[in-house]
Amino acid sequence: MDSTCMEIAALGRPLYPGMLYDCRRDSFIPGVTLWDKKALLDDIDVRQQPRTHLKFASSDTLSDKANLLDISGSLKASFLSGLVEVGGSAKYLHDNKSSARQSRVTMQYSQTTCFEQLTMKELAHITYPQVFEQKTATHVVTAVLYGAHAFMVFDHTSAENENKQNVEGNLFSVVKKLPNMSIEGEASLQMTDGEKEVAENISVTFYGDFELEENPTTYKNAMDVYKKLPVLMKQQQNKGVPLTVWLFPLTLLDSNAAKLVREISMSLVRKTEKVLEEMGEVERRCNDLIKNQMADNFPDVKARLVKFQDVHIDYKIAFQKALVTVLPDIRGGTQEDKALGDILSIHNTSPFTADKMNQWLDYMMSELSILSSCVLKDLKVVTSLGSLHSIILDPTVDVVVCLSFTSLKYEDSYLAATEDFLNHGGFTKPEQTKEKLFSLQDAQFWFNSPEISKRMRQNLSLFTAFSKANKNDKVKFIIASISDSSYPGTSIRLYQEGSLTDSNFQPVSKPPKPVVETSDEKVTLNFSKSPTGERFRVEYRTTPPTDSATDVDAWKVTDTSDAQTSFTLNELTPGEQYWVRYRAVSDVGVSEASNSVPFTSQ
Question: Which residue, 412, 283, 298, is CA-closest to 352?
Fold first, then answer.
């Protein structure tokens, strides 16, 4: 294995000719060398290599990022695990999208300046041979390609009602136009309306090996920076930073030196990359749900999402730490590839697989969607106990009617399983986690119950109708999360004069239309008995009713003295056509009006 030169990306690390490198840990060894400084400076072959490259990428996967920086499979494994600490422009590798609604295009500008290499004379005359016995390094840097990378990351976050695919197309088109526009000037810029809108809402992040006076943050800033990039290196009068380095095995200089026994299997590297890519996608989904307005409205739901976010971060750290412990040993020959395969096997039986995490997030999305469908546009959602008390105890309000979500605080068996995995060893004690398999099929969520769903729809319908029928300053309608296992799902709570008087209030509801009996002498209205009403309110008029808000004043109103189911209308004009309807009345308020019935008095 350890008999050929290797070419790797420098990734912002200070890798210069003569520096020692340990390929087992993908780290350089500072302060130790095979030659003295003067010999290194005297025997370096330098060749000018001025070249410029421009690339665009609309994908933001780990694989595509690695390709832009020419990261090889073995080095990629070290980067994925966190073994490699990148610097300069390579910090771009850590810039990940935070939202699933985020569109991104990356522009990479690369400039090479010169190529430096050690001569054969230098390789043959080693000043400090004792380095071989230390076995801290496996290779020595024999050649370096210098230059600079610059990455400009263009981001646009779509609104929920925007077509993300169209936004991505416009974003890519706008970024691709930037080089021509920088050369020909803004006057040459031809953009569609969609492209202009995207360009105005782009955020830009710069990662580079160039020294800028000010980093760009907008599309216009990016245009100005791009104009300067070709001359920045000359103005700063330097050859740039190491971009690519070539490593020579120390065993070819001395058989006693440490060596790289084996590379990491590319198949396992790809599987590891897939796991971390899936973790990133899950993280973006979770971020979006946490920012959802319903999560702010209902703190119990948000608390679960934040808890998931925390255990997800902890798991990612644990996964990468496990990789760090085995990669150097596999490369050094003290462990087989199986050690990495075992870590992936533990992951595949953990609660943190992509399928399980996404399924749980699907449930959370369903819960938020249900809550969103139950929240009425003009009603306040009370998010804290303090706010609830201030409303209930308000002396200017006689009655508070609250649509309460009673089942939002519950023990989540999936989150418990994730914590259990992390608390009982995770990757460090696989024998304790192997038997603790978890299935989300076993989890019970309140909103999946048909009985609870039916009750919720009924309560929402009653609450909505009652709130619309009773708009006055003395009655206040609110929505809140108040746990109550006696009424799973939702209940309507009634507060009167600062005290809870009914945990399962049943407001008066819309009655069936009245039956009208006319005779020569009178008009009799027959009502359906109200289960919760104390009396009825009769409303009648001589003009056809409309849906206009001002139309309510056209109704003449009279209340019955009790809950009698028949009522006689008096003082009607003979031969006149009327429309009549009625409402059930309780001590709290009135119901929605019944459908109106036309009749002609005799």
Answer: 283
CB 216 within 8 A of CB 208: no
The 10 Å Cβ neighbour count of residue 396 is 7
The CA distance from 273 to 268, in Å, is 8
pLDDT in tens, 377-434: 889 999 999 999 999 999 999 999 999 999 999 999 999 999 999 998 778 766 655 5
Question: DSSP assignment of 283-321, as one string?
Answer: HHHHHHHHTSHHHHH-HHHHHHHHHHHHHHHHHHHHHHH
Show the DSSP H helices in 424-476 as ranges.
430-433, 450-469
Angle, helix 164-184 to helix 219-236, in steps of 10 degrees: 50
Annotated domain spans of the chain: 6-260, 268-502, 515-600
* Distance separating alpha carbons of residues 20 and 14, to the nearest angstrom: 11
CATH superfamily of 515-600: Immunoglobulins (2.60.40.10)
The answer to whether the CB of 530 falls within 8 A of the CB of 563 is: yes
Reported as a single tens digit per residue, the pLDDT across 339-383 is: 999 999 999 999 999 999 999 999 999 999 999 999 988 899 999
Could you tell me the two tokens for 397? 């309000």
Residue 143 is which amino acid? Answer: A
**Tally of helices (H runs) and strands (E runs) in the chain:** 17, 20
Rounded to 5 degrees, φ, ψ at 59 are -95, 150
The tokens for 207 are 């990662």
Q: Residue 22's closest CA among 124, 116, 141?
A: 141
Kindly report, residue by residue over 303-352, the tens digit of the pLDDT: 999 999 999 999 999 999 999 999 999 999 999 999 999 999 999 999 99
Look up residue 3 and give its amino acid. S
C-alpha 95/C-alpha 574 separation (Å) is 81
**Can you tell me the distance from the alpha carbon of 599 to that of 516, in angstroms, rounded to the nearest whole number?**
7
d(CA 125, CA 120): 9
DSSP state string for 478-547:
EEEE---TTS-SEEEEEEETTEEEETT-----PPPPPEEEE-SS-EEEE-PPPSS-SEEEEEEESS---S
Mean pLDDT, rounded, for 187-206: 85
Residue ranges in 333-449 assigned as alpha helix (H): 338-348, 354-374, 385-392, 413-423, 430-433
Amino acid at 414: Y
Half-sphere exposure of 8 (CA within 13 A, CB side): 30
- Give bridge partners of residue 583 from the DSSP assignment: 537
Distance CA(558)–CA(472), nearest Å, equals 19
pLDDT, tens digit, for every residue of 157-186? 998 878 889 999 999 999 998 888 755 555
Q: What does the block give as tokens for 546?
A: 């409309």
Supply the mean pLDDT for the chain: 90
518-550 pLDDT tens trace: 887 789 999 999 888 999 999 999 888 877 767
Residues 18-33 have pLDDT tens digits of: 999 999 999 999 988 8
Q: What is the mean pLDDT of residues 491-516?
A: 95
